[in-house]
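Hey, I'm writing a tutorial for new members on how sequence and structure tokens pair up, and I'd like a real worked example in the thread rather than a made-up one. If someone can provide the structure for the chain below, I'll link this post from the tutorial.
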Amino acid sequence: MLDLLGDDPHLWDKPQLIRSAPGAGKTTLLRLFTPAALVNLHAFRDNADLKELYQRMATLGVINEGGPQLLGVFLSCARNYRILDDLDFEPARKQRLLFGLLNARIVLATLRASLQLRGLRYPEDLSRIKVSADAPTEIRAGEPGATSGVELHRWATALEENVCDAIDSFDGGELASLPGSDTLHSIGLMRPGVLTVDGRPVASHRLLLLDDVHHLTHGQRSLLLKTVADMRTGVGVWLAERFEALSTDEMLETGVTEGRDYDGEILIERFWRESANKFTNLLNSVADRRASAALTVEVTSLDSCLQASLDGTEWQGKYEATIPVIRDRVTKLSRESTLFHDWIEAQERQPGGIRDRAIGWRVLEILIYRELRNQQASFDFPLSPADLKEKTDSSIRAAAELFLAQEFRLPYYFGPKKLANLASWNIEQFMRLAGDEFEEVVASSLISKTPTLNAGRQDALLREASESFWTEIPRRARYGERVYQLLTSIGRFCRQRTYEENAPYDPGVTGIAISMKEREQLQSKEFLKKNPEYGLLADVLAAAIANNLLEAQLDRRVKGNTWMVLNLNRLLCVSYDLPLQYGGFKERPLRDLYVWMTAGYEPKKSLL
């Protein structure tokens, strides 16, 4: 997870936005820098499982042999801030109450974190915290003579209570007398030298960690982001939020906000897409550590428990049964022509195992369909085995393997690589899938003493997980029913295009694309005013992207045009027997997507 931070030397003295869909690891990343995590990491720094993490954190300057060197103050924005916008107060009063609550809670969280970092008790040891004359003016004015954590704690507690009382009273009162604050002055409390514990600075680095920013209202969030960006305190402030906080326009920019308030944004899913090997390594590490920690079974690696190939003897009979079926179809296809005679002869002599031969026959069938579509009737020259070899690439073999699995009910979704692909760059999604499989591994070990999960059972578990994932969409996403309708339509469309007999988009289609011009239309107020129905489509697409149900890629150049590609979340692909590779997509106009969203997709009849 630390790879997300890069090598920025200003991590500790500037604001940083961290965004993702639910379950990508935002909160985990933030909590890694809290006192509890750092104190434990230092205590167990010689543990083999933690050495790598300790070294990386030491490189960041967060920790050393002497102990933690960072004061990380964690605060969730999920706690009753939204109700302020429901009050019948003018905006200035609401703003004062919002900043009052935030300031009080930031101060209390800072005091708690300062003591935790030193292994002291909260609130019993507050007197060991001293406040310098450099404390923010607003705090010193609110608690004259405050020189220790005791007075500071009393001031912050009273402020929080007074703000809550003002909210409960439903009486705005005079603005000047209203409890609260006009800005986030509490961040100044974290400046160097302001707080000391037992006469020593609390830490070399300071970081305010604001989580769940998406729980604020749109106005509160905008105010907070602007206030933090405008402050020049020298204190790092990290703000983590879900994509759902962004506007439709921002989501159609794939989560990037326009403006110059922040130097950069960490978009977690995008980072992992661009660093796929790092993501796979992270998943393997997480899974292996969970497996090795199991008490009921001796397993050091989940990968080693997952059957990753169908070359074993238990699958030979199933593959062998497919060959005569496909051979018979190939013979009938080529009966009226000598065009494929040499290809069939070559396939009959193909060396290798049963599975390879079955895939070879399915490849041959696909290629014959392609030639029948392309070949002019006036030419009937036999195609050579060299032609067959040249046309047989990894993509068509992947399509043949998929077609075999779908037609003959063979496992397809199994093995560590596909398990990682099905995570769709989301750690929580991976842990859900890996957890289901590991439970089966444990059960298998207890019953048969063999901690191995065969390919068939893996496939069944992942199909069940996919169906469950689909059922969650209506309540998981904004415009949930519309999102579900659109995604099921995309799934049906992809399935039809994938399973065309000549496999024109091998190994298959797993997404759609709209032109960048049409994407811009979805962001145009003038266009949406003239075509209001597309406003709902824009909102639905944004909601699907925000929840990682569609993976967006901008400016993909194909056929002399640029496109916004929208790939289905890989776990959604399972229910439609789609491949997991990226790259297969079909361009569709906005009018088709609108129809799919409102009325559903009706598969067309086969073209052959």
